[in-house]
Design a protein that fits this description.
Layout lengths: L1 E6 L20 H21 L4 E6 L16 E4 L19 E7 L19 E6 L2 E2 L2 H11 L4 E7 H10 L4 E9 L2 E4 L2 H17 L13 E7 L2 H7 L6 E4 L2 E6 L2 H11 L1
Parallel strand pairs: 1-2, 1-4, 2-3, 4-7, 7-8
Antiparallel strand pairs: 5-6, 5-10, 8-9, 10-12, 11-12
Helix pairs in contact: 1-4
Bound molecules: zinc ion.
The site of zinc ion (ZN) has 5 residues, from loops.
Length: 266
Amino acid sequence: MKIYISVDIEGVCGTTTWNEVTRGNVEYLEFQQQMTREVIAACEGAFEAGATEIVIKDAHDTACNIIADDLPENTSLIRGWSRHPYMMMQELDSSFDAALMLGYHSLAGGGGNPLAHTMSSSRISTLDINNMPASEFLINYYTAMLEKVPVLFISGDREICDHAAEIAPGISTVSVKTGVGASTVNIHPKSALRMIKSAVFEVLSGSLSGHLEDLPEWFNITIDYANNQDAYKASFYPGAELISPRRVGFESDNYLDVLRLFLFTL
Ligand SMILES: [Zn+2]
């Protein structure tokens, strides 16, 4: 059983401020460790359930956060950004049996995490796919569907877990915190590890089939930028149009084209 894990940090237990999730700050070290421990917990659950190979994508900021030496063997770690349109799901292909998402966070415009955003925290106000506010979870969930890989687990803040459960029926979720204004109310970091390990074990011990849905046949994208200069530039992407000074629209029946748009305009 071959497992793919995409890992962010804003939904890791405890993270509350940008300093805590940005390399170079003393506060970051504690949460880099917790991020790594949550990955280890998921790997342990997956191996106990019969996983034979695990590929981990470090998918936050520089993508050089997870402490490789602490990871179990029989895992491989993707660090940095290749600039492939799969972005946070780089190297995912149809050879994987399941994908898991760890440390995921509330979407742009959401109130469920003080660090809520979608792809770019400074440039993007909101991003809609088919008139539905889109999270990084949704973007990457559709990428997994493109490769026919079921997404079976997510951990992160309460809001992203609820959002994922609405989109992906049957997904296993572990909520490690709830955002309240600029604060977070967290479970104990060790409880997060225990819950992630047991939920991953349970979901991967069950049937992996029956979780795959069909991709939408048509994608209608609107991106609202924080400033009009970014929208103006993005409107020159082939097929994109400027709807209003800060809003760009794009339509396609091909999700890879949507991911290409995101790669160049988010
Ligand atoms: Zn992040």
